[in-house]
Write a structure and sequence with these properties.
Blueprint: E1 9-14, E2 17-21, H1 23-31, E3 43-50, E4 54-60, E5 68-70, E6 73-75, H2 78-90, E7 94-101, H3 111-123, E8 131-136, E9 145-150, E10 155-158
């Protein structure tokens, strides 16, 4: 018997566009929460279909065996990430950001999280107005997710609709 699919969560990016995290993506996040001291921080990338009115995140990758994981640190395998970006693009999906876990009920980004997302946005070749960062806490409700959009100079926390 398969587990029921989680419901999608929607966020307003701007007056004309919304971000949707599909149930499949939400379920992927919850499979990797740090519910015990033995579970390391983990994460991956986010891939979406993009229209003028909606960014629909349909896939979340990772973690992979080749990533470096510890209780308070996640370092992804960059080679694997680049390969995933190419593979998902062939399927019509765009890399839109990253996700990772924190061992907190209600997560908040660290200064390193914010700096690395700004750096990623600056160094990437893309036509997006911003990247998405999701931090997954241990609370398996909407408040257990920190969702933000990032540029090289700023970020905005998004709230569920």
């Amino acid at each position: 018997m398969t587990a029921p699919m989680r419901r999608p969560i929607q966020f307003r990016i701007n007056p004309n566009q919304r971000l949707v995290l599909t149930g499949k993506v939400i379920e992927h996040f919850w499979k990797h929460t740090q519910k015990s001291f033995l579970i390391p921080e983990s994460g991956g990338q986010l891939f979406a279909r993009i229209t003028p009115k909606c960014v629909t995140v349909t896939d979340a990758t990772g973690p992979y065996r080749s990533d470096l994981l510890s209780r308070y640190c996640f370092v992804p395998n960059k080679r694997r990430q680049r390969a995933d970006i190419q593979e998902f693009f062939k399927r019509g999906l765009h890399y839109v950001g990253d996700w990772h876990t924190h061992p907190q009920n209600i997560p908040t980004p660290s200064s390193l999280d914010l700096e690395s997302m700004a750096d990623c946005f600056k160094k990437s070749r893309h036509e997006l107005e911003s990247f998405v960062m999701v931090i997954v806490g241990t609370e398996e409700q909407e408040q257990g997710l920190w969702v933000g959009i990032h540029t090289s100079a700023s970020y905005t926390k998004l709230n569920p609709l």
